[in-house]
TrEMBL record:
Function, in words: This is one of the proteins that bind and probably mediate the attachment of the 5S RNA into the large ribosomal subunit, where it forms part of the central protuberance.
GO biological process, one term: translation
Name of the gene encoding the protein in the UniProt record: rplR
SUPFAM superfamilies hit by this protein: Translational machinery components
Similarity-based family: Belongs to the universal ribosomal protein uL18 family.
Listed PANTHER family: 39S RIBOSOMAL PROTEIN L18, MITOCHONDRIAL, LARGE RIBOSOMAL SUBUNIT PROTEIN UL18M
Origin species: Luteibacter yeojuensis
Keyword RNA-binding: yes
Subunit structure: Part of the 50S ribosomal subunit; part of the 5S rRNA/L5/L18/L25 subcomplex. Contacts the 5S and 23S rRNAs.
Database matches in HAMAP family: Ribosomal_uL18_B (MF_01337_B)
Key words, A-Z: Ribonucleoprotein, Ribosomal protein, RNA-binding, rRNA-binding
Protein name, as recorded: Large ribosomal subunit protein uL18
């Protein structure tokens, strides 16, 4: 089993539990170069999204792969979700450890008013 398969195996139980709860899900994916965040409705449609690939998000960032960029993505995805009428979500870290960029994104989303 390689690194990505292990991560997806860890993410599977979290996603199954969130599916049972039938709540909105804030899903995070990180690569070496970028960070992506999406809010999914219980039926699987994307309600809000933000990533460092988007020019509007990346403007003004020194780097697209650090904690500062993760904080910006978290704040923007929370603002977009609230504009779409989503107040609370379940956090899906996609099998990544809750530290560094993942933690910074979650903390920024909480500070922007998203409850989870």
């Amino acid at each position: 089993m390689n690194k990505n398969e292990s991560r997806l195996r860890r993410a599977k139980s979290t996603r199954a539990h969130i599916r049972e709860l039938a709540v909105h899900r804030l899903s995070v994916h990180r690569t070496g170069q970028h960070l992506y965040a999406q809010v999914f409705a219980p039926n699987g449609t994307v309600v809000a999204a933000a990533s460092t690939v988007q020019k509007s998000v990346a403007d003004g960032l020194k780097s697209k792969k650090n904690v500062e960029a993760a904080t910006t993505v978290g704040r923007i995805v929370a603002e977009r979700a609230k504009a779409a009428g989503v107040e609370s979500v379940a956090f899906d870290r996609s099998g990544f450890r809750y530290h560094g960029r993942i933690k910074a994104l979650a903390d920024a989303a909480r500070e922007a008013g998203l409850k989870f």
